[in-house]
Amino acid sequence: MIKLDALYSGKAKTIFKTDNPQKLIMEFRDSLTAFDGKKKSTAPKKGYYNARISEELFRLLEEGGIKTHFDSMLSDTEMVVDAVEIIKIEVIVRNIAAGSLIRKYPFKPGQKLDPPILLLDYKSDEYSDPMINDDIALALGLATREELLKIRELALRINSILVEYLNDRDLLLPDFKLEFGRRNGDIVLADEISCDTCRFWDKMTGESLDKDVFRYDKGDLASAYREVARRIVPGISL
Ligand code: TMP
Ligand code: ASP
């Protein structure tokens, strides 16, 4: 496979075209931002840890019957993925109250949410990812009613698989963000599942092992991501 020009460079990943129009290369970088890009930094090996965590979780989900855009790893930080049409909706699944949920609503921090709460944001830097509902998604033409139903069902199945897997590795999953894409008339999981897009808490201590370490200056980001990689990716070299 030949890596061609960059198609798009986001805050933490760059997407490259390849000589196969059906495939893209997603490169995980060491840079990161928070609060709509207002806070910026880099952390050593962050791209590596996130790429390997995403790889492992995509493989796990594929084994559980969830279709994803994952194809293979080209290197430790470069993932080959299917070229899908990204649906401009960020799907957030919440199992424990944290983050913006406790800022905006009277949930107690750490309160268990059973059944999980599913929220939708419009994926738009211009509008700062505002929260939407099915009616807005339909009116904006972001997805069809059938697609929204399918996305909801997939997000909840993904949540069950991840919660169980992570629990066995002494990690809680308070919340996470998913993106989906269209591939040959089907909906598949896209983007990444990593310490940038999930909250991971140590089951015993409740310590944050994710991007909250950077958002709220809670310690060393690389150490937190390394610890998640160690627990999630069997045999990873750290
Ligand atoms: P929030 O509590 O800040 O709304 O975040 C909910 C989850 O979504 C959390 O696990 C982090 C993830 N997330 C992203 O992946 N991208 C974002 O831009 C934001 C704001 C949150
Ligand atoms: N990813 C978003 C940003 O870079 C927000 C966040 O994750 O907190 O601004």
Can I get a quick summary?
By secondary structure, the chain is α+β, with helices and mostly antiparallel strands. The protein has helices at 46-63, 100-104, 134-139, 145-167, 212-215, 221-232; strands at 3-9, 13-18, 23-28, 31-34, 39-42, 70-73, 78-82, 85-86, 89-96, 112-122, 131-132, 171-183, 186-190, 198-202. It folds into two domains: 3-82, Phosphorylase Kinase, domain 1 (2-Layer Sandwich), CATH 3.30.200; 85-220, ATP-grasp fold, B domain (D-amino Acid Aminotransferase, Chain A, domain 1), CATH 3.30.470.
Structure, explained:
Helix 1 (46-63) runs parallel beside helix 6 (221-232). The model has no long low-confidence stretch (mean pLDDT 98). The protein is of the alpha+beta class and 238 residues long. The chain is built from 6 helices and 14 strands. Helices cover 29% and strands 34% of the residues. It has 2 domains: 3-82, Phosphorylase Kinase, domain 1, CATH 3.30.200; 85-220, ATP-grasp fold, B domain (D-amino Acid Aminotransferase, Chain A, domain 1). The structure holds thymidine-5'-phosphate (TMP) and aspartic acid (ASP). Thymidine-5'-phosphate is lined by residues 92, 99-101, 129, 175-177, 197-199. One of its GO terms (molecular function) is ATP binding. Belongs to the SAICAR synthetase family.
